[in-house]
Amino acid sequence: VQFVESGGGLVQPGGSLRLSCTATGFNFVGSDMSWYRQAPGKERELVGGISRLSEGRNYADPVYGRFTISRDDAKDTIYLEMNSLKIEDTAVYFCNAGYWRPQFDSWGRGTRVIVSS
User: Fold this and answer.
1) Do 99 and 58 contact (CB within 8 A), yes or no?
2) What is the DSSP letter of 54?
3) Four-residue CA torsion sign, 20, 21, 27, 32
4) 45-60 pLDDT per residue, tens
5) What is the pLDDT of residue 21?
6) Are 80 and 67 in contact (CB under 8 A)?
7) How far is CA 89 from CA 13, 24, 51, 92, 96, in A?
8) Closest CA relative to residue 2, chosen from 77, 54, 59
């Protein structure tokens, strides 16, 4: 199982970024997927999830209405569209299989998002 996250960077408050995560080594099309983040000095937390076939989505309260998760099953990839970014969104972002909790113990390197003026 492998996850490769990309798309992070430095952005000003109020800006936008789009993250990508490509997964291999398991049945991606048949799997729910989710995004997580880990801010400096804090534990990793769930950002949100998307069910297989994009039938459902869930979002953590801090990102609700600002972030959108989507998936492209033809590319074994999920996306995280982040708008109206806040300083507190600064973190390393990861993906994993699962809807409410990570399915696998292995993680990718993540992609770092820094929101700063």
Assistant:
1) yes
2) G
3) negative
4) 999 999 999 999 999 9
5) 98
6) yes
7) 9, 27, 23, 9, 19
8) 77
